[in-house]
Each structure stands twice: as C-alpha cells, then as structure tokens.
Amino acid sequence: MIKLRSFLLAAAVTAALPAMQAEAATAFECPVPDAGATVDASLAALLPPDNAFEDVAKLNAAIDAMTASGVSRAVVIDVLVSRYCPVMAKESWLSDAEKTDRMRAFASRVTRIVFGLESEDTIIFDVALPAAIANQVTSQASAAKITPQAWIATEVDKAITGN
To answer: How far is CA 7 from CA 65, 77, 93, in A?
Structure first.
C-alpha cells in the first residue's frame, strides 16, 4: 500500500508538469520545491552535477543513496526535478516550450528510475509523434501482432544495425 501511495504521489509530480506547458507561452520558470523536498549536505553531494543529469548510472547512484538514507521516493523525484529545472532554464537556445517538454520527459524518466522501471540496460525515450504517424505505428504493430513500443524498438534496431 505504501508503494502504491508513493507511486501515486510521484505520478502527481509528473502530472503537474502540464501546468508548466500552459505557462510556457509566457516564460519558463522553475517551481519552488515542496518544503519536504530538501536533502542534507551529505546527500546533496551525491546528486549529479549539472552536466550529468542525462547519465543514468549517476542518476541511479544518487537515487540509491537518497533512498538508502530514508528519503521517500516522492521527495527523491521532487529533489531531482527541482535540481534539473535550473539546468534547463540556462539552455538559452531552447524555446520555453522545448524546455517544458524536456522537463516533462526528465520527470517521467526519473519517476521510472525511482520505481525501478528503468535501468542502465533499458532506457525509455519519450517521443511525441504526430497523430498520423502514431496511427501508422499502431497499424504496423497490430499487423505484426506486437505492441507499438515493441514495433518501434524493432524498427530503430533495424535502422541502426541495418538488419
């Protein structure tokens, strides 16, 4: 029950990001983290540096260290998203909408890592597809009797390996 509650809370963090999308029309701003979403100095040292947030191994290490120290999963997610937001804010070549999309993808990815749904061996990419292409993917996957995700993975593998 606690695991479900933590997962729902983490999902709420991810679900709150669409509000950032609406604000993206004005200016990209980082939300203030919840009061409970802080870590002491020893744990802060375990967080990835600004240039390492995309490194799954470093994210896993930071997450493992925080959860081993008793930090709740929801707070781990909030801390990492709160620390990543200023990194995105500095990316001046991205539009506010692109920053918001990257924040949403990062929050989703961190949530999957925290709840053990992603590893160093398997990385999930969140890719928005136009409706027409998504319909074609679904149709092709259905014809192959596999999920759209499996079809996409197979096609990417074929494109990269040439097989």
So the answer is: 19, 11, 34
> What token pair was written down for 66?
């925080």
- H or E stretch including 67? helix 56-68
Are both 147 and 76 inside the same structural domain?
no
**Is residue 28 assigned to a domain?**
yes
pLDDT in tens, the chain (163 residues): 444 444 444 444 454 445 444 444 568 888 776 655 555 666 677 677 766 677 777 778 888 888 888 888 888 888 888 888 888 888 888 899 888 888 888 888 888 888 875 555 666 667 778 888 888 988 898 898 887 888 888 898 899 888 7
Our count of domains for the chain comes to 2
Q: Is there a single domain that holds both residue 25 and residue 84?
A: yes
Provide the residue range defining the domain that includes 141. 131-161
Residues 96 and 141 in one domain: no
In a domain? residue 121: no
pTM equals: 0.56
The two tokens of residue 43 are 């744990």
Length of the chain: 163
Q: For residue 110, with 0-12 CB atoms within 10 Å meaning exposed, 13-18 middle and 19 or more buried, which class applies?
A: buried
| Radius of gyration (C-alpha) of the chain in whole angstroms | 18
